[in-house]
Amino acid sequence: MSEMIRRYRRAIISALLAVALSVWAAPVVMGSVAVSKTAKEKLQTKITYSCVDLPIETVLMQLAEKARIDIVKSPKVTGKITAKVTDVPLEEALANILAAYDYTYVATDNMIRVVPVSEIALVKEELISKVYRITYADANEVAASLRNFVSEKGKVAVNRGTNHIVVTDTEYKIRGVDKFVAELDHQTQQVLVEVKIYEITTR
């Protein structure tokens, strides 16, 4: 009888340990999922990097290692790179370095693809939407200008009540829209004129 009780107690203890371990391990699994970042999030990683006359594949590999991201380049992307960037997001560094050589990049969920600008139309990109709040310029005029700027798949919507513009297009085009809106929506420079009035009485 005592042997049966001991077995029963061991079974209960084993079950409790199993439950405790599963509960303890759950946050670890959830934490590992939370740590995993998409390529677009990794593009915000700030990097400091410099190179002189290095092959572009070497430069891309070193940038990929710094941001822990996968980068794949088109066979047509060739040449040597000379660049220096200091504490800037990879997104900005990559865009400026590639633009100087007439290349660009496309970000998917898990990796970056580098291609010539001329081939960007051949790359299948998902459409994304971004909201712009127009502060100084006329929202209708900005929207009208953007309709001539976006791609054939792109869309521009304007909310006159809130002065918001919603642009839907590929990531490549949205990066251009960011700069376009920044150029158009800025405060008009004001000139301060100081005037002094003198009253003269002649006698």
Brief description of this entry?
The protein is an alpha+beta fold and about 200 residues long.
- The H-and-E topology, N to C, reads as HHEHEEHEEEHEEH
Q: Give the overall average pLDDT.
A: 78
Shape: extended
What is the tally of beta strands? 8
CATH class of the domain at 40-122: Alpha Beta
**Integer-rounded radius of gyration:** 29 Å
Class of secondary structure makeup:
alpha+beta
Sheet of most strands: 3 strands, mixed
Question: Terminal Cα separation, in Å?
Answer: 132 Å
CATH architecture of the domain at 40-122: 3-Layer(bab) Sandwich
User: How big a fraction of the residues is strand?
Assistant: 25-35%
The CATH topology of the domain at 40-122 is given as Phage tail protein beta-alpha-beta fold
Sequence of strands across the biggest β-sheet: 2-5-4
What's the tally of helices?
6
